[in-house]
Design a protein that fits this description.
Order of helices and strands: HHHHHHHHHHHH
Distance between the termini: 51 Å
Radius of gyration: 21 Å
Helix content: over 70%
Number of helices: 12
Structural class: mainly alpha
Length: about 280
């Protein structure tokens, strides 16, 4: 049974690679092409892929593969590609959009869902938290192809990193604690704010400590593959340690990655991979 599912997953992977290849060939954003093809595959019933679709959409599989496996790596990789100096230059708009923009989007979508669509309050606020987590991959790929100024690209990239963490915190509060806090009245609002600060600041603390520790660790080595292994360990470690202490794993990964990619790079990270030696021991 699993062999059949694995083969179907390989077919999906082949389809995605084929879509990317075509999009690159015609100079179109491949991320948009993947979204369109993914929507079509989700709408159209394809018997050959039914078992793979059922397997992927299971909540336990989605949590294990997408959230626990892919999310830390994707977030960590994004932090390493975003120079901290660029992020620092645009710090004010990034933080304003990440905090103010995300909270505003969360409230507007949640209230609209409740009063316009008639969703139960907890469902509406949970939906608002989901919708406030924006993914800028398609936008950034288009920006870069159009030659949009680096300043705007940095703001969008930086906002998206913190936006994910804040949206996850809002989702946890909305889906688990919202009704309890509403029954508490004004005291519940204060408890919600304290919980938000706990999730956020706790994630920042975990990411800061681990980012500093791993930055010091790579000072002892000048080995590019080992540094890659350390970075992966940092991303997964930040995420799962933060989640263990019931704080934001997403924020921990972002902060740890930023410290590792800036401070760690300045004190010990290799600039490029070492060349492969062609010397043979038999000569």
């Amino acid at each position: 049974m699993f062999n059949e599912i694995f083969i179907q997953l390989l077919i999906l992977l082949a389809v995605s690679m084929f879509v990317i290849a075509i999009a690159k060939k015609i100079n179109q954003p491949y991320s948009i092409a993947l979204v369109i093809v993914g929507l079509l595959l989700g709408i159209v019933q394809i018997p050959l892929l039914e078992e793979a679709e059922t397997f992927i959409t299971q909540s336990s599989v989605f949590q294990a593969i997408v959230i626990s496996l892919f999310l830390p790596i994707l977030l960590g990789n994004a932090t390493l590609k975003l120079p901290f100096s660029h992020l620092k230059e645009q710090g004010k708009p990034v933080l304003a959009l990440a905090f103010g923009g995300t909270l505003l989007s969360f409230l507007i979508v949640a209230l609209a869902g409740h009063y316009v669509l008639g969703l139960p309050l907890a469902v509406a606020f949970t939906f608002g938290a989901l919708m406030s987590a924006t993914d800028p991959i398609s936008v950034i790929s288009i920006f870069k192809s159009l030659g949009v100024p680096r300043k705007i690209v940095t703001i969008i990239e930086g906002e998206s990193l913190f936006n994910d963490g804040i949206a996850v915190v809002l989702f946890q509060i909305s889906s688990v604690y919202l009704l309890t806090y509403m029954e508490m009245g004004w005291a519940g609002i204060g408890s919600g704010l304290l919980l938000f600060l706990k999730f956020s600041l706790g994630g920042i603390a975990v990411g800061t400590v681990l980012g500093f520790v791993f930055s010091q660790l790579i000072r002892l080595y000048d080995d590019y593959p080992l540094e890659i292994a350390f970075s992966m360990l940092l991303f997964f470690g930040s995420y799962f340690i933060a989640e263990h202490f019931h704080v934001s794993g997403v924020i921990a990964v972002v902060v740890g990655g930023l410290i590792f990619g800036s401070y760690g790079a300045s004190i010990g990270m290799s600039e490029r991979p070492a060349p492969i030696s062609t010397h043979s021991g038999m000569s």
